[in-house]
Amino acid sequence: MKFIVKINSDYRIILSLLLSVFARKKLFTQSHKVAKNIYFQLFMIQKPFLLISILFVLFACKNEQESPSIVNEQTKNTNIEFAKGFDISYYEGYKVITLKNAWPGAEKEFKYALIDNGTVLDSPENYDAIVTVPIDEIVVTSTTHIPSLEMLEVDKSLIGFPNLDYISSEATRKRITDNQITELGRNQDINTEVLIEINPDLVVGFAVDGNNKTLSNIKKTGIPVVYNSDWTETSPLGKAEWIKFFAAFYNKEAEANRLFTEIKNEYQKAKKLALQAKSSPTVLSGAMYKDVWHLPQGQSWAAQFISDANGNYIWKDTKGTGSFSLSLESILDKAEHAEIWIGPSYYTNLNQLQEAHAVYKQFDAFKNNEVYSFTNKVGETGGLLYFELAPNRPDIVLKDIIKILHPELLPDYEFYFFDKLK
What we know:
By secondary structure, the protein is of the alpha/beta class. Helices cover 38% and strands 16% of the residues.
């Protein structure tokens, strides 16, 4: 380069450093021109100290860019508002999903690197999975994962699932009929040979503890495996926000943000409407199993819906996010005169309830035909629509429950998940 030949060696070194800085900051097309202009101006006025100061600033900028700081690009930012189980951070050329609660009580945090094509990570050993995005083909293992794919319009990337009969979605069932989705066996015993044959870009699994041998074996084949723990969320909007988790693998964050915002706004609008009700009906939930009554705890997902619908769940003050068990005597003592009964296990009509336990006839809700369930909305192979779609659409669930508790607030609304048992 003639320009460099004409100057002394010290300034040649400085120019080379400038070129390196600008090239690393991806100003490839103009890096030489910019560096030379900066150098020339400073060289002519003989201000080497100023030149060194600029170099220091440039290198500081470079180091800041290469350090793990979030890239502030509005179309790519994913703001997690309600979900407690994951975060997404963005860096140049890749993003990192941090899974905080892979299963209840999990101590380990999992980190998944989602890299752009051509990106090389400095420390790949720091990640539990590395996935090149956007992905083209995926295997998921829970029906709750499927609505996110459909809402993002990437459901055609689904090529395998364990126990296809559980799926209720009409669109996905059509793809099953057309042999576009492969049966992979049981969730805890996925057919690894078949999985290797279809060779997806990613497997999304879930675990109730840290001993999921099936997923560990899949990981050994070289197919990336990630956990999804949407089911551990207790907030209705927290569960729905996991659409952002799936969107990250398809680079569809902007679409996920838009969809979730619509769901959030509808949910909050419905919750506000419920406050206009003049009363809060008392609510019983659950049913008997082997002479013990099982019902949701006061901080559970189900209890949150009743609260947000302005209902008075009788066990709202209990601590815990799962279910708990009580004797029939204690249930009768507190809930015999409950006005509404929501979610009486898997019974689909009042006759089944009566035949299962004669004591059910003692409850006012049964006597007054105020028993509601989601058990009658099923797919063509028997899968329950509620279990598949409700976590993604809490706004619809809330409207259903408002219709149950305060029908006067939604006079023209038709149930989507729930029905009154007959």
